[in-house]
Design goal:
Nuclear Transport Factor 2, Chain: A, alpha+beta, signal, five-stranded antiparallel β-sheet, two-stranded antiparallel sheet, SnoaL-like domain-containing protein
Length: 196
């Protein structure tokens, strides 16, 4: 009986030790907070492209960092745009129209509100506020959510622009087994008329 109690004690100690190693390893894998400067730089490059560069530069930027582009092989001749898969020609035309509008844009990037490992990927959920100024009117979208994704064996980050209208099927494709306890903030819109 004493040997059995001693064996149970050893087993418990080993289990606690293994859990501690796993937790410390999980913390080491989470890099979002450490990589915020890198993530903010990707936003800054995107803003610079809209402000000063060509449409082709924006397309290259999206091909490099847009998480949805990794799924295009499952959707021939389609591109994920805003909240749905649409024909690639239409997505390109809609994006070009937004690009050509040349509104003054500012970003306010907030600290992550969730950060965890899911299916060998680190997910980092960040809210941001984006303001667009055009024709004496500023429209601010508050609490937009971007999901930043990084394979745990890579330094490369991709972004996913979350929209409340996304279908459950599309969200499941991008993020299978996403935790149900994560609540996305509701986006708010504020419109201000600039006075002369």
């Amino acid at each position: 009986m004493a040997n059995m109690k001693q064996g149970i004690k050893r087993l418990c100690c080993v289990m606690v030790w293994v859990m501690a190693i796993q937790l410390s390893h999980a913390d080491e894998q989470l890099r979002c907070s450490k990589d915020m400067a890198k993530i903010k730089n990707i936003y800054a490059v995107k803003k610079d492209i809209f402000d000063h560069q060509q449409f082709e530069d924006l397309q290259n930027h999206l091909n490099q960092y847009d998480y949805t582009r990794l799924f295009q092989k499952n959707h021939p001749k389609q591109t994920y745009y805003l909240d749905a898969w649409i024909p690639s020609d239409q997505a390109t035309a809609d994006l070009k129209s937004a690009f050509d509008d040349k509104m003054e844009t500012t970003y306010a990037v907030h600290q992550p509100f969730a950060n965890f490992i899911l299916n060998d990927q680190e997910l980092c959920l960040i809210t941001l506020d984006i303001s667009f100024t055009s024709d004496e009117v500023t429209t601010t979208l508050k609490n937009l959510t971007d999901i930043w994704v990084r394979k745990t064996d890579s330094d490369r980050w991709y972004f996913f622009e979350y929209h409340e209208a996304i279908s459950p099927e599309d969200f499941q494709e991008f993020f299978p087994d996403f935790p149900e306890n994560i609540i996305f903030p509701m986006t708010e819109t504020d419109i201000t008329t600039l006075e002369n």
